[in-house]
Design goal:
Layout lengths: L1 E7 L3 E7 L6 E8 L9 H10 L2 E8 L9 H17 L3 E5 L3 H11 L4 H24 L1
Parallel strand pairs: 1-4, 4-5
Antiparallel strand pairs: 1-2, 2-3
Length: 138
């Protein structure tokens, strides 16, 4: 059984999966969504859950630096609640402060071009969210 990690934004969802033992996170894809038009990608997420036998979902919760939850965090909480309801899986909200910044730094250090970084940053952030969760459990 694998664990899925998600970095949820208003336009994309970065998706990562753990290995079968729950030790490492690998980026899977970046899903295009449109929050304004109520297009959230739940159908595609459901396919991934079924195909990879996902048993738990970890959703990055964007908090303000002082620990409070702003509008983006509230939208993420609603998204996570909907995932739990639709797929009947435990859903964990994981503090994702600075995960996108860290992902950007890793990609910069790897000398990935700006155009390519834009395509993979959300998937990379999902990997960092999931890996942080996995590391806390092992």
């Amino acid at each position: 059984m694998r664990i899925m990690g998600l970095d949820v934004g208003s336009k994309t969802v970065g998706i990562a999966l753990s290995d079968a033992l729950g030790w490492t996170a690998q980026g899977l894809e970046t899903l295009k969504i449109n929050e304004d038009e109520n297009i959230f990608g739940f159908e595609q997420i459901g396919k991934i859950i079924k195909e990879h036998e996902v048993s738990k979902i970890v959703v990055g919760l964007p908090k303000n630096m002082n620990g409070t939850i702003g509008p983006r965090g509230e939208a993420t909480q609603r998204y996570a609640a909907e995932l739990e309801k639709l797929f009947n899986l435990p859903t964990v909200l994981w503090d994702e402060r600075l995960s996108t910044v860290a992902a950007e730094r890793v990609l910069l250090e790897a000398d990935v071009s700006r155009k390519k970084r834009k395509k993979v940053i959300d998937k990379m952030a999902a990997v960092m969210i999931l890996q942080g969760f996995l590391d806390s459990k092992n």
